[in-house]
Design a protein that fits this description.
This protein has ten helices and seven strands. By secondary structure, it is α/β, with parallel strands linked by helices. The strands form two sheets. It has a four-stranded antiparallel β-sheet. Strands 5-6-7 form a three-stranded parallel β-sheet.
Length: about 280
């Protein structure tokens, strides 16, 4: 049970006791009463609308009822430092420091189970994240997204959902053609001493030199006379080099994907059309 549920139950117990004493009239259901995080400007920890829900049936203004309930809630809980009322009738609660000390202690003592949502039905989730173009190493922005996606996946797994981590490989389109040409010219630069072309569409990064060397070392007989004759094979080899580097970057962050899905294969297999036809 989280803090909000915990204090919602405490508030319900207080108003039920008042009802039993004949000091408060309650509706048939208490479902409308909630606890939530108040806006930062109020410098409080929990807010409840209990007074606004119960004011009409008790023929009281929300602010007057909130004032009465706030005082009572504070006296019933030693962890509450302040209980303030805010228009149109919210009660904002602020905890004493000892509350947070005990709260953190509870998390540490129950770290394997604390925070698990036992209410929701377990589901299957596909988390697609990073999915940077396979044209070179990841940059800081990619890594930030990688950490966020992995944390989301971990939270869902912690709550016993089934999660698949997916990397969508954008290996189709003009950027891949230009990337492959860039590797091709690096290979010619290495073997034929040709200068790398000054072309804004190409990828000038020095990391492509390593890609080119690796491909040359494992494909001794590759013919570099004509790009078109080897473009398909070279595209596959170049993307593979990029993915090796990307996976190495991700592994440095402790992140591993379950699937790497090729856009090119989806296009060639007409998967998008199949989905549209199905819908």
């Amino acid at each position: 049970m989280n803090i909000f549920d915990q204090y919602l139950e405490k508030i319900k117990i207080i108003i039920l006791n008042l009802s039993d004493k004949g000091e408060l009239i309650l509706p048939d259901t208490l479902e409308g009463i909630n606890t939530e995080l108040p806006p930062k400007k109020f410098n409080s920890d929990i807010s409840t609308n209990v007074a606004m829900v119960l004011s009409k049936i008790n023929n009281k203004s929300p602010m007057d009822l909130a004032d009465d309930l706030a005082k009572l809630i504070k006296t019933k809980d030693d962890y509450i430092e302040e209980a303030n009322i805010v228009k149109p009738g919210f009660i904002n609660l602020k905890f004493k420091p000892i509350f947070w000390t005990n709260f953190i202690k509870e998390i540490i003592e129950n770290f394997k189970t604390y925070g698990i949502n036992k209410k929701d039905k377990k589901k299957n989730y596909l988390i697609e994240f990073v999915s940077a173009n396979p044209t070179g190493p990841l940059h800081v922005g990619h890594c930030r997204g990688a950490i966020l996606g992995d944390v989301i996946a971990n939270i869902l797994l912690f709550n016993n959902h089934k999660v698949t981590r997916e990397y969508y490989v954008n290996d189709y389109g003009n950027q891949i053609i230009n990337f492959t040409k860039s590797v091709y010219f690096r290979m010619r630069e290495i073997t034929l001493k040709e200068p790398f072309p000054n072309n804004e569409d190409l990828y000038p990064g020095d990391y492509l030199i390593d890609f080119a060397k690796n491909i040359l070392n494992s494909n001794k007989d590759i013919d570099l006379k004509n790009f078109d004759n080897i473009s398909e094979k070279l595209t596959e080899l170049s993307i593979n080099e990029a993915l090796i580097l990307i996976k190495k970057n991700l592994n440095s962050l402790g992140i591993n994907h379950d699937n790497f899905i090729s856009e090119k294969k989806l296009v060639k297999n007409h998967e998008v059309k199949k989905v549209i036809d199905f819908l």
